[in-house]
Amino acid sequence: MLAVRRNGRNGNVMDEGLKKSRIVEAIKNGIDGFLSENSDMVGFAHVEYIILSNDLRSCLVGIAPLEAKASKAMLDFLEANHYHINRELKKRFSSKYFPRIKFEVVTDEKIDI
User: Fold this and answer.
1) For 24, how many CA atoms within 13 A lie in the half-sphere containing its CB?
2) Residue 85 in 3-state DSSP?
């Protein structure tokens, strides 16, 4: 069951599960867009999963590269552009807090089927 709480300022009911799913979707779309814009530098990849903490302060993003040999270069590129990615995502989403994003490259061994 989703948690519902009252917002003290204006009395609106805010659905925490809906807020979390909106943040996850915004992060996924933003990072997928960033990866497609920079595919010439790091190769092709997509967001495999996003794990968002309950307090919405941190987020782990699993990136799956098309080529396994490009995984180290992709992780280095994402970590080097971490500030730029966070800044662009914060512009797209209006919230007091936005999660700190950490990246993880998903290889075939990590995918559970």
Assistant:
1) 17
2) helix
pTM of the model: 0.74
Q: Domain extents for the chain?
A: 15-105
Q: Which residues contact residue 9 at a Cβ distance below 8 angstroms, ignoring those fewer than 6 apart?
A: none
pLDDT digits (tens, 9 = 90+) for 78-97: 889 888 888 888 887 777 77
Q: What is the dihedral of CA 44, 49, 54, 60, to 10 degrees?
A: -40
* HSE value, Cβ hemisphere, 13 Å, CA-based, for 103: 27
- Kindly give the residue spans of alpha helices, DSSP state H, lying in 38-66: 39-42
Position 73, amino acid? A
Fold of 15-105: GMP Synthetase; Chain A, domain 3 (3.30.300)
Mean pLDDT per 10-residue run, the chain (113 residues)? 45 63 88 86 86 90 84 86 86 78 79 50
